[in-house]
Give the backbone structure.
Amino acid sequence: MWPPTLTLDLLLLVSLSLGAHGDRTSCRPQRCTLECIRRGDPRCEYCRISADDVQISPRIPSSSPFGSCIPWPCHSFLGQDTPEVCQHYVKAPRNIHIEVEANKDPTYDTITVSWNPSQYGIAFLRGFQVTLQALGGSQVSCQLFLLGSNLSLTPAQAQRVYHSDPFTHLSLDTKYVVTVMALPIPEQWDQFYDKKSFFTQTCPEKNGLEECKKDWYPRYVEVHQENQDVYVTFNLAPEHFEVHQYFSSCFGGGLRNYTSIKPDFSLNKTHHTYRLQNLRAGTNYTCEIAADVVDAVRKTFVVEVKHSSEELPTAKFTESPSLVVLLSVGILLVVTAVLTFTVLYKKRLKKKKVQTKMRPEIIEQYYDKKLGEGQCVLLDKTTRPPRLLICYSSNDGPAHVSVVLQLAAFLQKHMATQVYLDLWEALSIMEEGSMGWHCRRMKECDFVLVICGHLWSSRGLHQNQSEDEEPLENTALATVSMIGEELCRAKALGQDLSKYMVAIFEYSQESDIPAALGLASRYTLTRDLPLLFSHLHGVALQKPGVYLQVENISESGYCKLPAGAALQLAIQEAKAQISMEPTEEEHVGIPIIS
């Protein structure tokens, strides 16, 4: 028998422990009616309420981030008989978690949402509203959950996990935002909800690569050489993909070799062998193979073309005094020529070297500590170039749009960058819509560059509109808002901010940059072309013993190239047009990303 005092102490310890950990019950929605909730039936503790039960149509706030799925006012469905239950609000829920549910549909995902209630005001908690919206989309899905009218939670029960019903038919590889709000909701409810963004599964993650035509690529590639001929064997796409043609592209020795492949499916439906032509012996090639369809994923492999036995010299050198003398003289001449060329090349580099004025904070940000002295940066066609999305305001005038277009052409042609510009993808924008296209490209690209013109700040992108204005369904405003939100989120989490950049040309000012982009790296073009290059490729501009030299990329050297001369001419025309334009006060309208 334990002493009574010890028994009492143990009971007290257990009760304190239970109070500290709280109630960790997992609550899933019940199927019940609003009338059952109002009666306080104990069988209706946590219920999903359908739209048929709530026959109200309150005024939709013009600035609502939830579209037509607005927070339902508590008094509309709970306060008719007992108004006091709606007089207090509860802080935002926390710990939102997304769980992917198993389903047999290969084209859609199904998810459920779970969360914990806040302990602040939990005694007045009456339910939750959960909304789900695709990023860039207009359709919003809503679920309304209510707690029994006779139920009153305590702060110790803030560890309960509440679940939503499944959200079905979610598109694969799409970004969604889920928002959970506690009921009742105050009049100023913008700070009393929590949200979380997530991506649904990709097609390969859900169904396997062999079932996804868009993401399929040859995984089996075998190369073998027979005398002068090089043969490649690869696996074909599944028959239901209906891929009838492939292509192969090889680069080596300064030349590119393209091969069109049309397999004979009557001979073999799973594999095909083709011959690579016009390859040079003793040369290493980097090759790609893919289905000949739009945006096909490519498989990269290496081909080393060896000298065949027929090419090897068969004659043997006979030792003789004359041959030895000739070889010695030849070697001496070669060494002398190499030394002379080295000295002349170093002198030429010193004369050609241009000292570019660089901001110290940018140099420090992209100072590559692993770049040793004497090491060089090699950019060739075998390296995948960084992908860059350019955003801009078309309301800055056709001259500014022309400058953006010429800049995109220069970046892609001479700065080893894959540029995505809406002017080049009109068909995709017609299919997806401007906002959908920009959202997809922002997700796919390694970097996003926002070009701010001289009218950008006067068009409303500082978000200083009055509350009486209608909702701004504007691509430029939405894009800048999304980038600003991503920058703030990354800053708060201590993550890298280098994906987003802002640039102005010499005819604009830094005050034209929206305040939402204050955390992004800033550049003035064309003065900062070397800085932009180092940002895109992640290399150091200089350090003791090392100086990055990129041909024709400087404030004075870019215009020597045809694309650079076209960019310079476009900038001059834009400056001339701006000098003839009226002041900002005479402009009206809102910028739109084309």
User: Anything to note?
Assistant: The radius of gyration is 33 Å. The longest strand covers residues 108-116. The chain has eleven helices and 25 strands. The chain has three domains: 21-207, 209-304, 360-464+473-586.
